[in-house]
Design brief:
Length: about 500
């Protein structure tokens, strides 16, 4: 390492977000710029540890060569740092912004001192790479003659397409939305990930030889809910085209399913049919659409009392979006207990530290309304309806997780019932798995959690040559895990096709 004693000399100093008062006035990215010298100093804090847990299974899922590019940044070798970053990560401009940084949770320095600001450095490396013109399309030297279809253009689908294209295969990515990017485009709001960054990377893949087809769904049109992505895309716009599964398998040598886990977990309590109750992804999708089209969102929190049920990143994104739309008030319900301020004894390093954190949206709500919007250990019992069947409130009860009851790991606290007035409710309680219609049409087996059954490392489903990767295989997870699985499924498909080619040559 260039600065062996750097971790002793320099304190951790993360790059701050833009000030709340400033960023609440727009949908621009929340991130502020960082001085290169500051980042070099932070890179110098990376220890010359014998075993870099930051790139272990508990750290970085894509095995980023973190100590190497930290040291190169310290040495002011930014171009070399970019090469090492791209060696394991196809899209560091995404992970550098939206990843929760499990690498920092596993940082060896973090045992006794605040961890290295790995995420800040990663983002700075790739941003500088684009600014300097160092990031270029990577086209294969020759083509294999094989054709591969990828269903879904989220991080798993894009990573698979990139790697398969580099291997020489002709790749076509199908996306049912009107823009490429999947979760990156419509699931993550503008202020966390500028969509120009997604489009920039897609343009590079297109220049490298990847074909992209939008507004096309693989599978027949099933009975779709009003908030389904296809219906959202068709509202006043072009209709979606449909390709039968058999047509795809006839046309291509392999099919990679990277369709995500899009079946949202519902809350079937009394009053659920009230108007004004929406799934989080419907809300976020419509918000991004409206920003693209420079028109008011069809679900607008302006002047409304908003309740977000469910925590996590998506819940925070709903809070941040509602604040920017000008909501009158906002409250966040979380069924679980408030996490501790410090690691519990059963949550040792290098595991991800399960501690309370304030995301960007929580501090924004604190700034706007003077208090944290989160309320823990709350069970929603019913939605209250107004005269026009609109939602006017949520009835809750507090729960005690230390006292299990029949059928539940908690008990309700008598006398803690409360009514919370509201005009809008966003359900952000995670996802149960991929949509079942596609699995049925393909005749695919699913696992015990309703995900597509396809074991790593071959990622082959119960029907060859159909492969699966990302959230539709492993369940709801992180963008960085999706990228890893996209890379690995590409290797599995490549091995499958080349073995088939060898068999054909022998025959």
């Amino acid at each position: 390492m260039g600065k062996v004693t750097g971790f002793k000399e320099f304190p951790r100093s993360a790059v701050p977000y833009r000030a709340e008062a400033e960023r609440l006035g727009d949908f621009d990215e929340i991130f502020s710029g960082a001085d290169p010298e500051h980042l070099q100093t932070q890179g110098a804090r990376c220890m010359d540890c014998g075993v870099p847990f930051c790139q272990s299974e508990e750290g970085c899922p894509v095995d980023n060569l973190i100590p190497e590019w930290n040291d190169l940044v310290y040495q002011d070798e930014w171009r070399a740092a970019l090469d090492r970053l791209h060696a394991t990560n196809n899209f560091p401009e995404f992970t550098g912004r939206v990843c929760p940084a499990p690498c920092e949770g596993a940082c060896v320095l973090g045992i006794t001192e605040p961890a290295v600001t790995i995420k800040n450095i990663e983002q700075a490396i790739i941003d500088r790479g684009f600014e300097e013109g160092w990031v270029e399309p990577v086209a294969p030297r020759q083509r294999s003659g094989f054709k591969v279809a990828v269903a879904g253009s989220g991080p798993a689908g894009l990573a698979a397409a990139d790697q398969l294209n580099r291997a020489g295969h002709a790749v076509t990515v199908y996306e049912r939305a009107d823009r490429i990017g999947g979760l990156l485009m419509y699931g993550i709001p503008m202020m966390k990930l500028d969509k120009r960054l997604v489009e920039r990377r897609v343009d590079l893949l297109r220049q490298a030889g990847v074909d992209f087809v939008t507004r096309t769904n693989i599978g027949t049109k099933a009975a779709l809910s009003t908030d389904h992505m296809i219906n959202l895309m068709e509202e006043g716009r072009d209709e979606t085209a449909y390709l039968s599964v058999e047509e795809v398998l006839d046309r291509y040598d392999a099919l990679v399913l990277a369709v995500g886990a899009t079946e949202a977990r519902d809350l079937p309590i009394p009053g659920r049919t009230a108007s004004g109750i929406h799934f989080a992804m419907e809300y976020l999708t419509r918000s991004t659409q409206s920003l693209y089209e420079k028109s008011p969102s069809s679900i607008n929190a302006a002047g409304k009392r908003v309740i977000v049920i469910g925590g996590g990143d998506t819940g925070a994104d709903c809070i941040g979006t509602a604040l920017r739309q000008g909501c009158q008030s906002i409250v966040n319900f979380e069924l679980l207990d408030r996490p501790p301020n410090e690691r519990a004894s059963n949550n040792p390093w290098p595991q991800w530290p399960l501690i309370v954190r304030s995301d960007y949206a929580h501090t924004e709500a604190q700034h706007r309304f003077g208090k944290d919007p989160r309320n823990y250990s709350l069970l929603s019992k019913s939605f209250l309806m107004g005269d026009q069947d609109e939602v006017r409130g949520v009835q809750t009860v507090e729960v005690d997780w230390s006292r299990p009851s029949d059928g539940a790991p908690f008990s309700e606290i008598k006398g803690s019932e409360r009514e919370w007035p509201c005009d809008l409710v966003f359900l952000s309680m995670g996802f149960t798995g991929p949509e079942g219609a596609l699995l049925d049409q393909l005749g695919l087996e699913s696992d015990s959690r309703s995900n597509i059954l396809a074991q790593a490392p071959d990622y082959l489903s119960s029907r060859a040559p159909v492969f699966a990767a990302g959230d539709c295989r492993r369940g709801q997870s992180l963008v960085v895990w999706a990228i890893r699985e996209g890379r690995e499924v590409a290797e599995a498909v490549d091995n499958y096709l080349r073995k088939r080619s060898e068999i054909s040559a022998v025959a």
